[in-house]
Amino acid sequence: MESRTASCYCGQLRIEVQGQTLGTGVCHCLACQQRTGSVFAALAAYAAPWKIEGVATEFVRTGDQGATFRFRFCPVCGSQVFHTEEGNDAFVMVAVGAFADPNFPPPQDSVYECRRHAWVQLPKGIAHYDRDPD
Fold first, then answer.
1. The CA-based dihedral angle spanning residues 82, 87, 90, 95, taken in that order and rounded to the nearest 10 degrees
2. What is the reported pTM?
3. Which residues are within 8 A (CB) of 18 and not within 5 positions of it... i.e. 6 or more apart?
4. Domain span at residue 40?
5. What per-residue string of b and e applies to 80-93 under the rule 16 or more CB within 10 Å gives b?
6. Are strands 127-128 and 109-111 parallel, antiparallel or unpaired?
């Protein structure tokens, strides 16, 4: 089974995931923009199990639809690496950039398009949602 490792910039915090992604997407919501310091978050979902190495600092926030998310980032370099949904241990969302792989598969969907910067261009053929479809 294929495994991938994502890490923070300094390498102190790492997560190893197994198998293919459950899906890859981008989120343009204002919370993701502020959280990442970019114009969107690029995320890849992986099924359990996963292995974490290093120490993480956590930030917890409640999403628009009431779900609570626990974001993990490196206390040394500040890189955000992954997050989970409270009460749902079936999958983890990993920041695509933390894989440091320019050949990572493109996103399959784009959510919160109502907040997308007009100059952001996305691959053809992906699903577009004005808000979160869940």
1. -10
2. 0.93
3. 1, 2, 3, 46, 47, 49, 50
4. 3-128
5. bbbbbeeeeeebbb
6. parallel
Residues 89-101 have pLDDT tens digits of 899 999 999 999 9
CATH code, domain with 93: 2.170.150.70
Question: pLDDT per residue over 59-78, tens digit each?
Answer: 999 877 778 999 999 999 99
The number of angstroms, rounded, from the C-alpha of 84 to the middle of its chain's C-alpha atoms is 9
How many other C-beta atoms lie within 10 A of the C-beta of residue 112? 21
Residue with tokens 């190495």: 53
What is the H or E stretch that residue 133 is in? none
* Pair of tokens at residue 5: 């490792």
